[in-house]
Amino acid sequence: MSLDHCKIINLPKISDPRGNLTFIEGGNHIPFDIQRVYYLYDVPGGAERGGHAHKNLHQLIIAMSGSFDVVLDDGGQKKRYHLNRSYQGLYVCSMIWRELDNFSSGSVCMVLASNKYDEDDYYRNYSEFLLAKGIDQ
After folding, report:
1. CA dihedral (104, 79, 97, 115) positive or negative
2. Considering just the CA atoms, what is the radius of gyration of the chain in Å?
3. Is 82 an annotated catalytic residue?
4. Could you tell me which residue ranges the Sugar 3,4-ketoisomerase QdtA cupin domain spans (predicted)?
């Protein structure tokens, strides 16, 4: 997989004077069924999250409140995304290294995942990730 497979997905947004509503249906708005949802919040200023890749897991990363950056790396190129709209999500396929940083105060990052938690699905060492992709260091 490469960065060409990762993209911003615009989610349905129903506008109403009383407030907006966005919904997500797995297999419809995103290319996987949702098996797990988790969120990051109260991230201290200057802190980074992520720093890993997944062997099989697919994710949609959404800034529910505030903003943050996601840096994706396929071993050949890197791309930075600034997320700050709750009706957009960043689709991240498997075998992509990801790092999250530049969290604004009060930001909330929600992640929709294609699988339940499995520690064996992680590459937590960048060199091992590159080796698995067949990239010489």
Report:
1. positive
2. 15
3. no
4. 5-131
| Dist. CA 125–CA 133, nearest whole Å | 13
**Contacts with 10 (C-beta within 8 Å, 6 or more apart), sequence order:** 87, 88
Residue 7 to residues 13, 58, 72, 90, 124, Cα–Cα distance (Å)? 18, 12, 10, 6, 23
The per-residue pLDDT string of the chain (137 residues; one tens digit each, 9 = 90 and over) reads 799 999 999 999 999 999 999 999 988 999 999 999 999 999 998 899 999 999 999 999 999 999 999 999 999 999 999 999 999 999 999 999 999 999 999 999 999 999 999 999 999 999 999 999 999 87
The model scores a pTM over 0.90: yes
User: 29, 52, 58, 82: which one is catalytic?
Assistant: 52
Residue written as token pair 């699988």: 115
Are 27 and 33 in contact by the 8 Å Cβ rule? The answer is yes
